[in-house]
Amino acid sequence: MWSVAVFAHNESLHILRCLHSLMDEASNIDVYVLVNGSTDNTYEKVVAFAERHPWVHPVAIAIGCKCNAWNIFVHEMAPASDAYFFLDGDCHVYPNCLAELAKSLALHKTAYASAAFPAVGRNKEKWIAELLQSSIWGCLYALSPEAIRIIKTNNIHLPVNAIGDDSILEYLLLTNFRGGKDDRNLERIVPAPEARFHHDPISFLKFTHYIEYYKKQVRDSVRWLQCQILITKLKREGVQAMPESIDQLMILEEIGKIRLRNGIDGLFDRLALRKVLEKIQHP
């Protein structure tokens, strides 16, 4: 059997499509839908779906944080399984997607993770190029039982309120969950090109889509700032320096050390920096 964690925060519009896409592999999976901090009716929709499909298990989590939900699943809920899958609730998978991820793990005995590929998107080719270089994308990936065992044994948690769960996990995988500067253990992450998922790309046909794009870019820059500070610390001090919350590191002393990027990324970095500083000054 396989275990699937689905992360859903206010995903009322997408969650049923996500769950329906898993039905082809339903005989071999247990799906835990981690509805975290939702204020819409996502949870009610999952409960109604689960009444007809017992392989789905609704989980209500008060805090709206993917990293916190990830910690709860891995450390408190994940049963013994042949493979573990992590899927965003606003995505849906293509046929045999999970099987392809599991196959990639089985074919590469030294791998801790396998990465699925986006089927659509404006930046699809860029993402695929990155995924082919031992990277993972948070929309969908798989972890091996050995990876889960190491995470549990060493009590490794992702920092609460961190945005870049996949970037943090990727770094941990490439350092054999030790942290430090040796992050070139590329055999730990393998691509699964035949494992495809769909994530709706942002369209620019409506004004609201521009607002959505703006918010996403600022959020991505906050993520970049957080990861710069966190991974620098982990490279210096090892995985034992992982904070309980990313907020513990987002202080003026650490932020002042970051060199912002140039170009359009730099513009959003500055907007993100202003947002982070406002949170520090008005917690």
TrEMBL record:
InterPro entries found in the cross-reference section: Glyco_trans_2-like, Nucleotide-diphossugar_trans
Keywords: Transferase
Ranges where the Glycosyltransferase 2-like domain occurs: 3-128
This protein's name: Glycosyl transferase
Membrane-crossing segments per the record: none
Source species of the chain: Desulfovibrio sp. U5L
Signal peptide range: none
GO molecular function: transferase activity
